[in-house]
């Protein structure tokens, strides 16, 4: 009964989305206030209907209603409650419903917080958002309906893929979708502005928080996925340049570029048409990402043929929205004249450089991702483009970006004197070079990766600190507490990038590894750590059996920790997983994995010491935190155009 | 060449689940594949018994393995893959190294048998110049367009304020 109501609500949401698209668009064109006003209740209704539908599906999963096909295929009555709930989005249909729910949430929040927008712009933004919702609701209902019943319900389900039964991955998709779909707001604002034919500083101010929020969510989502891969896949890899990962990374890069170019629109009324283009392309990459992950075309050209309906539908959505928006852009971009004048050396020009580097980096990832497909279809040449290519082709852009970042962040608007900026950054530069020399002298390998990565990290962190300090001006440290939150946000995010770069370089350069057969009681020594396999036991979990090793970690005779690496087997899904035993540290992780029992007794056993591993995700947390801090800055909370409240000697909240 | 190996590639399994391609999920519960999964038994990437006695040769073998693709997996190197076929390839690489091949000879040996598809770093020749040249070409193009734009901005003049704006500015300043 609840299920049927959910199904019905979903179909009703499709009808509401149609109204939300057409009526406000006509109303805004004809200047009919009544028609424009339809947008807001329609957005709210759509959110409520999709929300109810999602709740109904969740209810079916929680109560293990195996008469629903989706529940049977992705759940099991013995599964822990957390994973019954997260199982809702652990499959194509449910995750698409979550995607649409988030889309409706963003639409509704534009209605809630968009009170200060000009009425025609607001109506158009909501209409475009409704149009996206319409397309995806149609996709869900006609090609991947989650509410289909089974004529003969089985006694129990087939269980969720055990690799997905993990907290890190349980919350990875919702964050990722918040990011992907959040970019739809930037898209809707861009298309609405193109229809209006007007882009000004106020537009930049409205678009930036949405893009920032989307970018923060994407950062968290990508970091969660990478962290999960690190501890779950059994050898501590954290990034594979897989098409599915690239699908999330490209929008992240473009969103980062968009964030920075929107600053120029907001502060200097320049780069307008470029910013609009970025807003369109950013969401375009989200759509392409959905197409890549859900059609399976990049994995194999042949997989496409197994389920062409979905792939073709998603491709049609992508082509429709991108084609439409880009045509509109081509027709209207001329009207968006830029006003600000600035010299070749200025904050503006450095932000242009930032945009070029980020956009080209994203395009390199894109070309590498689709090249196997293009090459096979067009030139009949079957090849692979893997991690070594991406590492080689992508890294130079990020090194250049990292080198330029602290200088750009401190460059004044309009006209800057490079000598002045570089003089202020001299201590940071000296520190970075000192780190380079020191690390190079200490390390035993000849690889440049570690020293250069740490130098870049130091340069970024010290540069961010210099930037913050420069903000205090002559009044000194006391003013640190009165700076705007966005100043802290920027500093944190830039420093976070440095921490992540240092972490990646450190891990890749100095990881040590040991593979051997261990008997119970054996001890091995790796990078100064003594690792003893004390015992191996069989443990029965709620829906799996586990081979659990007890491993003692010690250094110079002093015990540090006891680790319990596991090898699990999920009988329903008939799949094994590895749970690594990890001792987390600030400077290194010790990572142990237990493998198969060997013929002559003992277990296959792998040990890694991974220097700076946690910095990768620590940096990502800093970036997300920086973004969130910027988002909470008072100029986004106070209505646009309102006068700033005079400082009263209180810390800026 | 393309065989299904449900127990082999962690990455492929995962991303398949993530991408939520339901068709593939159905396949993994197919009875014959189930049997395969049980028989194959999961193994971790490089096994202790594969490691060569000579640490230098072993290091070269690892380096080569990282650049070769597991043919039944998705985007995984044979160094990381758990599939049987990847193990066979790892052993093959080590066999050639022990026989005295240089790194290039090993790569040629493997590509002769399995085709260009096995290389994770695509070759530079032929149509692949598009792939390799895309980054530098776009960078030069981007920098060129950016430079033209910046020059135009630098030589432009700031728009003067309209009389109403002048009036408003005066009022604000006088306040």
UniProtKB/TrEMBL annotation, chain A:
Keyword Cell membrane tagged: yes
Localization, UniProt: Cell inner membrane
Topology relative to the membrane: Multi-pass membrane protein
InterPro entries per UniProt: CcmF_C (IPR032523), Cyt_c_assembly (IPR002541), Cyt_c_biogenesis (IPR003567), Cyt_c_biogenesis_CcmF (IPR003568)
Primary residence: membrane
GO MF terms, alphabetically ordered: heme binding; heme transmembrane transporter activity
Keyword Membrane: yes
Domain (Cytochrome c-type biogenesis protein CcmF C-terminal) ranges: 315-634
Assigned keywords, A-Z: Cell inner membrane, Cell membrane, Cytochrome c-type biogenesis, Membrane, Transmembrane, Transmembrane helix
Coiled coil: none
Assigned GO CC terms: plasma membrane
Transmembrane residue ranges: 6-26, 47-71, 96-114, 126-148, 175-195, 207-229, 249-265, 274-292, 312-331, 352-374, 394-413, 425-442, 448-470, 491-510, 612-631
Biological process according to GO: cytochrome complex assembly
Family: Belongs to the CcmF/CycK/Ccl1/NrfE/CcsA family.
Function per UniProt: Required for the biogenesis of c-type cytochromes. Possible subunit of a heme lyase.
Protein known as: Cytochrome c-type biogenesis protein CcmF
Naturally occurring in which organism (per UniProt): Pseudooceanicola batsensis (strain ATCC BAA-863 / DSM 15984 / KCTC 12145 / HTCC2597)
Lineage: Bacteria, Pseudomonadati, Pseudomonadota, Alphaproteobacteria, Rhodobacterales
